[in-house]
């Protein structure tokens, strides 16, 4: 009578690390934040693993357009309702949305276990070409080398997009480099920067299926 060995082999326990990789299901990466000051009132919800759905109202149409682009090209579901002292100017609204969006990213990322961590993208917009690179480092900072002509696009001061990214990078605890490689038109430069940042973020927050249980740092934390 033949001897059957396969049953004995299949009864052996799996390697614990292999078993952990097989059974780990990533938790939903979402956040909802409300923030009110004497200058602005903001409610924001974020899903890092969405499909690019959005509902955004800040009272600054061009800024809404850029936030739509970040949501769409980053594949983040994003809902923002912001009211601010637009009778003064859009500065407080734009900066405070950046703060809240950054905090939402930080909260949604949790302990950053399993993320890719780094991301980069180069995006053209007609004559403009902008590079963005992201490191979810825990050290919030923007390095900006993307001069934009100073002008108003609707009621949006073109200098404010940099202020938005400073606030966002600081709040999210990530290192963000934005560099203009070409461009003359303020609208095109800013939109290319928004889309490049979104695509770099999407790459950086993506889950690495080979390392869902670990934090991508030699220190063991970010």
Largest sheet: 4 strands, mixed
The helix content, as a percent range, equals: 25-40%
- Average pLDDT for all residues: 90
Categorize the overall geometry.
globular
Q: Count of helices? A: 6
Q: First CA to last CA: what distance? A: 59 Å
Estimated structural class: alpha+beta
Using the coordinates above, name the CATH class. Alpha Beta
H/E element sequence: HHEEEHEHEEEEEHEH
Supply the CATH architecture.
2-Layer Sandwich
Give the tally of structural domains. Answer: 1
Number of strands: 10
Low-pLDDT stretches: 1-23
Strand ordering within the main sheet: 1-2-4-3
Q: State the CATH superfamily name.
A: Imidazole glycerol phosphate dehydratase, domain 1
CA-atom Rg in angstroms: 21 Å
- What name does CATH use for the topology? Ribosomal Protein S5, domain 2
Beta-strand percentage?
A: 25-35%
Defining traits:
single chain; 222 residues; alpha+beta; Ribosomal Protein S5, domain 2; globular
């Amino acid at each position: 009578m033949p001897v059957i060995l396969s049953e004995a082999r299949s009864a052996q326990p799996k390697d614990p690390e292999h078993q952990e990789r097989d059974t780990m299901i990533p938790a939903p990466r979402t956040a909802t934040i409300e923030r009110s000051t004497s200058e602005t009132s903001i409610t924001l919800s974020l899903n890092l693993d969405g499909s690019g759905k959005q509902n955004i109202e800040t009272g600054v149409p061009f800024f809404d357009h850029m936030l739509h682009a970040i949501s769409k090209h980053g594949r983040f579901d994003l809902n923002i309702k912001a009211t601010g002292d637009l009778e003064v100017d859009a500065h407080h609204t734009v900066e405070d949305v950046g703060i809240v969006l950054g905090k939402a990213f930080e909260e949604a990322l949790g302990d950053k276990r399993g993320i890719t961590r780094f991301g980069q993208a180069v995006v053209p917009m007609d004559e403009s070409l902008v590079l963005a690179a992201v490191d979810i480092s825990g050290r919030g900072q923007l390095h900006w080398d993307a001069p934009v002509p100073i002008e108003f696009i609707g009621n949006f001061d073109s200098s404010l997009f940099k202020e938005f990214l400073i606030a966002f990078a600081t709040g999210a605890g990530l290192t963000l480099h934005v560099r203009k490689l070409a461009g003359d038109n303020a609208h095109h430069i800013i939109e290319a920067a928004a889309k490049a940042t979104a695509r770099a973020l999407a790459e950086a927050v993506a889950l690495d299926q080979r390392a869902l249980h670990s934090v991508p740092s030699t220190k063991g934390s970010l």
